[in-house]
């Protein structure tokens, strides 16, 4: 029996055993193993793959059968249970991005799946280019993937320390991983993001060091006419990043051939912050001070976009 089949079976059993259907306000109800309190359960969410793990201490191999889970399977694509060295792990894979809302009483643990927009006024997805064994542009032993990530982590720092918690921000990566293009665009589409911004860095076509420098932003020219769409967002990003960094404005670039751009349902902008093939710009891009300015520019762009009605 799959986890979802077991859930359906439990619901049926519960209905047959009692006159009335067991009622609770949440989507799912887990029973706490004897001696385990609700606060001992740990929830881990991987938004990029829409995977939610709930770790239950002292849940053994038979837990799923001994303590039947009840509730609705809405939005759950797959449900499994595994026992691992003293822990039981209930794993959900959901059809979209959800925030878990949980509560508990003496006997039960309750789970609800909230959409990002039920939790936040606005939703932004930030993508650091490349990662893992895909370094992107490489110059003088410096990988583009690391600069892209450093900038995104500076941006994350700004959001994390902001008083304003009305904006939900999801990141395709915050470490040296390399999510698939499908997962990157999927995070934006499955969270119904209001904005999708990707951070990259440029190099000349030949890859040789040159005088060419400055910031470019890519957008989806096939959706260029959409009001509050990709082209307007790209313009805002270009203006705000160059205003903060003082880099030269090299204009907008058509980017429909880029998978994450053409696949994004949200207004999307891919910022090529600077040229790694320009020595001055490469030195800048490596410095924390400059990375912080870039991050502030992207942050300002996001705030301006929302102020302008995105
Ligand atoms: Zn790149």
UniProtKB/TrEMBL annotation:
Signal peptide: none annotated. Residues 185-303 form the MurNAc-LAA domain. It holds the Pfam family Amidase_3. It comes from the Bacteria. One of its GO terms (biological process) is peptidoglycan catabolic process. InterPro entries: MurNAc-LAA_cat (IPR002508), N-acetylmuramoyl_amidase_3 (IPR050695). SMART domains: Ami_3. GO terms for cellular component: outer membrane-bounded periplasmic space. One of its GO terms (molecular function) is N-acetylmuramoyl-L-alanine amidase activity. Keywords: Hydrolase. This is N-acetylmuramoyl-L-alanine amidase.
């Amino acid at each position: 029996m799959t986890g979802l089949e077991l859930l359906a079976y439990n619901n049926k059993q519960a209905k047959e055993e009692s006159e009335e259907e067991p009622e609770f306000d949440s989507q799912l109800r887990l029973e706490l193993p004897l001696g385990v309190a609700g606060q001992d359960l740990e929830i881990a969410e991987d938004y990029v793959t829409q995977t939610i793990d709930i770790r239950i201490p002292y849940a053994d191999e038979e837990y799923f059968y001994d303590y039947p889970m009840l509730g609705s399977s809405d939005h759950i694509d797959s449900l499994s249970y595994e026992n691992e060295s003293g822990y039981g792990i209930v794993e959900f894979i959901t059809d979209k991005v959800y925030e878990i809302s949980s509560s508990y009483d003496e006997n039960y643990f309750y789970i609800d799946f909230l959409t990002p927009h039920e939790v936040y006024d606005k939703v932004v997805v930030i993508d650091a280019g490349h990662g893992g064994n895909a370094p992107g542009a490489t110059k003088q032993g410096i990988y583009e993937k690391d600069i892209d990530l450093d900038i995104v982590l500076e941006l994350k720092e700004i959001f994390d320390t902001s008083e304003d918690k009305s904006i939900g921000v999801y990141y395709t990566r915050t470490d040296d991983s390399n999510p698939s293009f499908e997962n990157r665009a999927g995070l934006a589409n499955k969270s119904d993001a209001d904005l999708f911004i990707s951070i990259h860095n440029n190099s000349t076509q030949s890859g040789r060091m040159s005088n060419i420098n400055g910031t470019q932003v890519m957008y989806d020219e096939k959706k260029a006419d959409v009001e509050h769409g990709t082209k307007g967002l790209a313009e805002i990003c270009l203006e705000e990043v160059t205003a903060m960094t003082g880099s030269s404005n090299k204009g907008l670039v058509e980017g429909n051939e880029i998978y994450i751009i053409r696949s994004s349902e949200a207004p999307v902008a891919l910022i090529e912050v600077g040229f790694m093939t320009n020595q001055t710009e490469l030195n800048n891009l490596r410095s924390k001070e400059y990375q912080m300015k870039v991050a502030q520019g992207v942050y300002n762009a996001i705030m301006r976009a929302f102020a302008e009605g995105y």
